[in-house]
Amino acid sequence: PWPVGSARWALRGEELAGGLRLFFAQFIGDWEWCVDTFGWRGYRHNFMCHRCWASKVLSHMCYTNFADDAFWRTTIISHTAYMLMEIWRSSLEAMPGWRLERTRPDSMHTVNLGLLPLLIGNVLLWLVTVLANHSLPKLGAPLPLDADKHALLHDLYLRFKLYCRDHGLSATVPRFTLKNTYSRGTMCFNCKAAPADVVLRWLNDITSQFTDIVSTPDSKRVAACTWGLMEYMHVVRHAGHFLTPEEQQRVKRGGGAFL
Fold first, then answer.
1. Between the CA of residue 173 and those of 114, 153, 157, 189, 207, what are the distances in Å?
2. Quick one: average pLDDT of 140-147?
3. DSSP letter assigned to residue 201
């Protein structure tokens, strides 16, 4: 949206050359960009979502509750209700054809570049922690039990490259180091979306093997998380423009396992 009062702002809604007009269909961007550009609420607000009243401060409306019966699901904001609000309004409403329900996050930014780096970083460091007492199955001679985290991460990186070679996969990712998996106080492994998908496939394989040997609540939970997100991403990547009923069930099953 152009600055209010500018020359281009004054031409909003007017016909272009040849009688053409533009209308809003969709936009793609990460949440921080949407907040800064369109004035949406974000995670610095107590009520961070423009589509519902999920909250950071009200326990019964907690935004981290992903259950099917989460109370915030009953507070979905309609387009009509949004247009009657006096605060948190967006400049998008001046665009012809815009409606609140058309403003949705896209999976590339929320999953591939959002959740996935966080999951990879957490699982890598979890593996390093448990490998201090256990060795991974089916992967050759284990490292000494007193190996430090740097050596364990390097070993995991070599195993990942072997996995890629054995499965005919190509993935150029940063080396697994403490610096690359823990930055700015957050366990997060940043790499491009395509190779991150390959890392996830490897993590699903390796955590599943580990669960077969060491059956603990943590190992089962980590394996379920990696499988769930991998299943979700696999369906979305290979589906058409619209999900079939079977694909919808697989997405729900995978997303539910992850959450």
1. 16, 14, 10, 10, 19
2. 58
3. H
